[in-house]
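Human: I wish I could look at a protein chain and see how it folds. This is the protein in question:
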Amino acid sequence: MSASLKVIKSAALLLGMQVVQRGLGIISTLILARILTPDDFGIIALITIVLQFFELLAEIGNQQYIVQKEILRDSDLNTAWTMDILIKSLVALAVICSAPLLSAFFETPELALALTIATLALPLRALRTPGMMQAVREIDYRPLFRLTLWQKGLSFIAVITIAWLYQSYWAIVLGSLLSAAVFAIGSYRVHPYRPKWSLENAREQWSFSQWLLLRGIVGFTRSQVDNLIVSKHFSTSALGGYNLVREISLLPALSAIIPMSEPLLASIARVKDDPDSLAYRVRFSLAIMVTVLTPLTTFLMLYPDLIVLTLLGEQWAAYSHLLRPFALFFLTFCLFALISDAIIALGRVRALFTFDLISTAIIIIILLVFATGSLTNMAWIRGGLAIATTIALLVLLNHWTGFSQTKLLFLIIPGALGSTAGTGLMMVMHLGEIQGFWELAIRGCLFIITSALAAICAAILLLKKTEEWHQVRYILKEFRR
């Protein structure tokens, strides 16, 4: 099986997995948005911010280390598993000890106990077999697919049941614990590898992971700085509304787009010593990503009120206007993740950390000086800064790989033309008395269909002589076979 075909098959399997996983996640969010209040979501946002920070302290890039290894040994897997358990257990203990202080800092008494319980998911997740990382390295997502079905299904049932009975944010906290436990136990059912306690290669792994750890802390600050500022300058309800609308804008990214890019990254790592193949695969990956993102971003910006009111309900109407600037954040969130992981696959972790450190400092200064006046200012300035940092990182990637920004711009023209055609149809289409869910469904389907057909026609006219177009045709032909 060719590398490209294996990547596409793995991406298709990941898509199926994410349709189930994120589909249930979306349904869960929409149900909870009608059961819980903005205050509840504000508390959940604070829990998420704190736990994400501490999780980053415990995230030493084991999977990236395993994926980029040219020769993988059992000692590598065993060391990764042992280090994960030790570090995440220590970090969980730190969260428990600091929970009262964090509760006082955010002026939210409910936060202390919720943090103490929620952080137990950290050591639980670390217990999973490292064989799951080996499967990802081999671009074999079948074990992960089977396990995800059980994990998400049981977690969904638990969260909705608890929320329905008690109408409390505790539903999400307890659901995350169950999810972690199911994944850890189930990993030994779907993969045969059995780890042993070992720190044989700890120094080697740490030399790779230390820059990822530092970058993770900086990356967290960059991604959550607006939420942190909102939590200190606005009410808990405002934080809940701001954070939930932002999460809604990122659902397509977290649901399918970023997970589907994982096989692309593995393929990039395999050709990092071949300049021509590297440039081609980076350019091809970016072109696919932008082509997929363009129509989704356009639709988010066209109908923010319709999307928020239909999905979340009337109690979130005051925050619906934030979806338009968050559409820019969605676009750059996906691209930034792909570009960053491609740079990691090249082994330039230290340079990436330096970039993240400088860009994060600039973002914090600009947000504190110009964005604290209103939630609207915060959202628009945050979206603009995300675009600027993504473009800057793209320039660096081009410098290191030579993928050619000019060729990339040419490859994404069909996607831009397709989105323009879809927008034109939306501007002239009137649905009369059809409103709510059916209006969103009809407009969404027609927009995507129109954009896809127009993009395909434009690609046939403009790209039929390019190597990328022949590659797409070959992959589709082999995939059908």
Q: What stands out?
A: The radius of gyration is 22 Å.
